[in-house]
Amino acid sequence: MKIFTLIFTVYAIAGIADAATVVVDPNNMDGWTFYSTDSSGTLNTGSNVGQMVTGPATPPLGVGSANLMTAPGAGDGSEQLRSTNSAGTPLASITSLSYSTYATSIGGDQLPFLNLYVSSQGNGVYDDRLWFEPVYSSASAGNGNPNPQPNIALNAWQTWNAFTGMWYTDSGTPNANAFPSDPNGPGDHAITFAEFLAAYPNATIVNPSAGVGGIRLASGFSSPGDNYNTYVDAFTIGVNGVNTTYNFEPVPEPATLSLFGLSALGSVGLTYLRRHRRR
């Protein structure tokens, strides 16, 4: 009876631990879609590549990540990964927002960036877009960021806290009064997520068109000669304190999946036993 109880407890603990993590792979994209664009930004017009891959190095979660890569001479286009899952989410209910990046080549200082497509009045009509670029939240950005983050680096996994980072918008609001000549410039005109929310307390995330996600992770949109080979993983969004983390993975082989499951179960079991003994 004790053995059965222990096994049941191990499985229960494993279920709780995995409840907030969603594995996204080519067989189960769970609301996420890759898009390639040319310099116009029109979806499905470019020659760039988006795919789930193994690595690089040791990703934050699992063994893989989402690769966003521009073709030679197509750095003015983009490769995007978008999610439809958060449409209707009030910005005021968001309590965390982060993701991890890795890059072997980029244009200038532009790591994969995050966009939120929003209805600023909360009426479901898409009218603005928020931009988070890691470089503008780095310690050297010089824009008054109250929560400076690391300077960007190549060939290394870095995690970005967009929730406490610096943003700018397509419309330039709420910066128009402070910077009338260039209200939506990113650099020293960037604002915090909280500042945008204070100006638009009813703002919500929206899908800008049918089936096209209102959350976007992307690389590109710079110069044609810029070559982007970037990776993203562990995208996390928290709503009212409940976090959902998306773990981007290639399709595992059946044997690997079985071993992973046994390993996870064994790890949870050992953790349970150690904690039990300490008690």
Total helical elements: 3
Largest sheet: 8 strands, antiparallel
How many distinct domains?
Answer: 1
Q: What is Rg?
A: 20 Å
> Strand pairing plus helix content: what structural class?
alpha+beta
Shape: globular
Q: Which H/E pattern describes the elements? A: HEEEEEEEEEEEHEEEEH
Distance between the termini: 20 Å
How many β-strands, per DSSP?
15
Taking pLDDT < 50 over at least 5 consecutive residues as the criterion, the unreliable ranges are 1-19, 255-279
Mean pLDDT: 84
Instruction: Report helical residue fraction.
Output: 10-25%
Query: How much beta, percentage-wise?
Result: 25-35%
In short:
With 279 residues, this protein is α+β, with helices and mostly antiparallel strands. It is 18% helix and 32% strand. It has one domain (21-259).
Overview of this protein structure:
Helix content is 18%, strand content 32%. With 279 residues, the chain is an alpha+beta fold. The chain has one domain. The strands form two sheets. Strands 2, 5, 7, 8, 10, 11, 12 and 13 form an eight-stranded antiparallel β-sheet that branches. Strands 1, 3, 4, 6, 9, 14 and 15 form a seven-stranded mixed β-sheet that branches. A hairpin with an 8-residue loop joins strand 7 and strand 8. The radius of gyration is 20 Å and the shape is globular. Residues 1-19 and 255-279 have low confidence and may be disordered.
